[in-house]
Automatic annotation (TrEMBL):
It holds the Pfam family ABC_tran. GO terms for molecular function: ABC-type amino acid transporter activity; ATP binding; ATP hydrolysis activity. CDD domains: ABC_HisP_GlnQ. Gene3D superfamilies: P-loop containing nucleotide triphosphate hydrolases. The keyword ATP-binding applies. The keyword ATP-binding applies. This is Peptide ABC transporter ATP-binding protein. Keywords: ATP-binding, Nucleotide-binding, Transport. InterPro entries: AAA+_ATPase, ABC_ATPase_HisP-typ, ABC_transporter-like_ATP-bd, ABC_transporter-like_CS, MetN_ABC_transporter-like, P-loop_NTPase. It comes from Halalkalibacterium halodurans. The lineage of its organism: Bacteria, Bacillati, Bacillota, Bacilli, Bacillales. Residues 2-236 form the ABC transporter domain.
Length: 240
């Protein structure tokens, strides 16, 4: 589903990703963990070309997205992204947030977009908020709407960049529960997270990034029990 080969990304003279190579299969749930500044967000953003890799190759679904002729708009319809700070459209209701892109980008009819919106809001437990504006929602509710909004495009892959890091502790659970449900539907997911419990329980694999290098790529059981690198052991000692 996702194939990454020798991915490099620099910002000016700062080399942030130093040759990442990995493969993610359809239906895999992959947790990306590592210290702050290690390049986790940059890695994720390279997968949907929010950042353009400096060199290396990325294929999504057999299409090389690092090819200069890639249709970025079309690519993004295949890849949903959820950010730490939600990024909902503040001037739109919850339902408008969900129906905007399907109608505008995919040409879905309004009736169809609303029907799909209702079913997604039902899934994330927020159908009764359909006509609210984002400012009237809690952080956890906003993030659940953001997930539903991304799903409204029927993506093949979902990317999450620290989706619970901006939330009050009591709201973390409700968002993780939605993500866990989604994982159980077979969605391919790449999740940058500091929620080690979630990574352990839900992920099929853990990628550990440190200073732009993919140091570990292991099933969670192995990673948490016996990380191979000193850096990962240090990291786990600090966070667990
Ligand atoms: P993480 O998500 O693991 O905390 P990031 O990928 O956000 O790490 O950042 C890795 C490094 O790249 C940091 O040193 C950060 O300051 C730098 N960086 C990220 N984005 C940019 C950018 N757009 N311009 C310049 N430097 C950036
Ligand atoms: Mg980050």
């Amino acid at each position: 589903m996702i194939n990454v080969k020798d991915l490099h990304k620099s910002f000016g003279s700062l080399e942030v990703l130093k040759g990442i190579t990995t493969e993610i299969q359809k239906g895999d749930v992959v947790a990306v963990i590592g210290p702050s500044g290690s390049g986790k967000s940059t890695f994720l953003r390279c997968l949907n070309l929010l950042e353009v890799p400096t060199s290396g190759h990325v294929w999504i679904d057999d299409e090389e997205i690092t090819h200069p002729k890639t249709n970025v708009g079309k690519l993004r319809t295949k890849i949903g992204m959820v950010f730490q700070h939600f990024h909902l459209f503040p001037h739109m209701t919850v339902m408008e947030n969900l129906t905007f892109a399907p109608m505008k980008v995919k040409g879905v009819s309004k009736a169809e977009a609303i029907a799909k919106g209702e079913s997604l809001l039902q899934k994330v437990g927020l159908l009764e908020k359909r006509d609210e504006y984002p400012s009237r929602l809690s952080g956890g509710q906003k993030q659940r709407v953001a997930i539903a909004r991304a799903l409204a495009m029927d993506p093949e892959v979902m990317l999450f960049d620290e989706p619970t890091s901006a939330l009050d502790p009591e709201m973390v659970k409700e968002v993780l529960a939605v993500m866990k449900d989604l994982a159980e539907t077979g969605m391919t997911m790449v999740i940058v997270t500091h929620e080690m419990g979630f990574a352990k329980e839900v992920a099929d694999r853990v990628l550990f990034l440190d200073q732009g290098i993919l140091l570990e790529d292991l099933p969670p059981k192995q990673f948490f029990a016996a990380p191979k690198s000193e850096r990962a052991r240090d990291f786990l000692e600090k966070v667990l």
